[in-house]
Amino acid sequence: MTRGNVRAVDLGVENFIFSDEVLLPSWPADDCPLCQAGVPVNVRYAHGSEFVGRA
């Protein structure tokens, strides 16, 4: 699985074969539709606590 941001050269290999590609939308923090809707940032997983710490 790839999000489209990793290539074989990035991994230092000749071939990088993935079973699926998932394109996830992204936007600058100021334009985030979830933030604008008041959806809280999940701080338990991924990088949510880092994001909140920068605010």
Can you give a write-up of this model?
The chain is 27% helix and 0% strand. The protein is mainly α and 55 residues long. It has one domain (8-54). The N and C termini lie far apart (31 Å).
Helix content: 25-40%
Poorly predicted runs are: none
Q: What is the 3D shape?
A: elongated
Strand coverage percent: under 5%
Q: Nearest-angstrom radius of gyration?
A: 15 Å
Distance between the termini: 31 Å
Overall number of domains? 1
| Oligomeric state of this protein | single chain
Order of helices and strands: HHH
Biggest sheet descriptor? none
User: How many individual helices?
Assistant: 3
Helix-and-strand structural type: mainly alpha
Helices, strands, pairings?
Elements: H1 8-11, H2 33-36, H3 48-54
